[in-house]
Design goal:
single chain, mainly alpha, 73% helix, globular
């Protein structure tokens, strides 16, 4: 019984410290998160296609997938899929979810700097677009907005574009991917570049010009994530950018 006395306590193994997924762990889990987002979005289309009476029709499914209502619901359903997949990926690290994704607020000064920087960057792209004789907003955006307006789902599309998409995409890109890649051999600069490229690849519906603009915005958001340590800031700026683009497209198309 002496071994159980207070004088000789049983030695306890020290708790394992939390860890961060490095390059390959982040890459593989990032693919899992992307697959979850894709599955969540496609599930909406699948549900409505199966609810449609009659045999399956590929052309009808394609038209349904292009509707504003369907796109809105798909984007919104991608959010819980991404949030859940991030939770699954982060749990083995024994790190708090909010800490791993840098879901912390920042100063008003950083918010102001971010808004001004984003405004200047987007304004430069708009000026370049006018100088090249191009449309300022993608035709894809105008078509989706018109479809949503005709279906009475414009409010839902605004929620999808300005809330659901920024949260899910920033959780994945500036939250999860940047965190792991920045602590690998890539370092912060490599993580900003690679996470921006990964985020830009989600916007393949645009042509090369808007693709380049999205990539530059990703670089700015990645830099702000690095400087402020706040993913909430990039979510806010992402949402404001999408809101401005939605309003601009709506005004120009009416």
């Amino acid at each position: 019984m002496d071994s159980l006395s207070a004088a000789s306590p049983v030695a306890l193994a020290p708790p394992r410290p939390p860890k961060v997924w490095k390059f390959w762990g982040t890459t593989l889990w990032g693919l899992f998160i992307f697959a979850a987002m894709f599955a969540g979005q496609v599930a909406v289309l699948g549900y409505f296609v199966l609810q449609r009476p009659g045999p399956l029709d590929i052309s009808a499914a394609a038209l349904m997938a292009a509707s504003g209502l369907m796109i809105s619901l798909s984007i919104i359903m991608g959010l819980p899929a991404v949030a859940g997949a991030c939770w699954i990926a982060i749990r083995p690290t024994r790190t708090l979810y909010a800490d791993y994704l840098a879901l912390r607020w920042t100063s008003f000064r950083n918010v102001a700097i971010g808004i001004i920087s984003l405004f200047v960057l987007v304004a430069c792209w708009d000026l370049l677009s006018r100088a090249l004789g191009r449309e300022i907003t993608p035709g894809f955006m105008g078509d989706v907005l018109k479809s949503a307006q005709d279906e009475g789902a414009l409010w839902l599309l605004v929620i999808a574009f300005c809330v659901a998409a920024p949260v899910s995409e920033e959780f994945m890109a500036r939250g999860f991917l940047y965190r792991g890649w920045s602590e690998s051999r890539l370092g912060p600069i490599g993580a900003i570049l690679l996470s921006s490229l990964a985020w830009t690849s989600l916007h393949l519906q645009y042509d090369w010009f808007f693709f380049a603009e999205v990539f530059s915005i990703g670089l700015l958001l990645g830099y702000l994530r690095y400087r402020t340590g706040s993913t909430w800031l990039t979510i806010l700026l992402h949402g404001l950018n999408n809101l401005a683009a939605t309003v601009q497209t709506f005004v120009l198309s009416n």
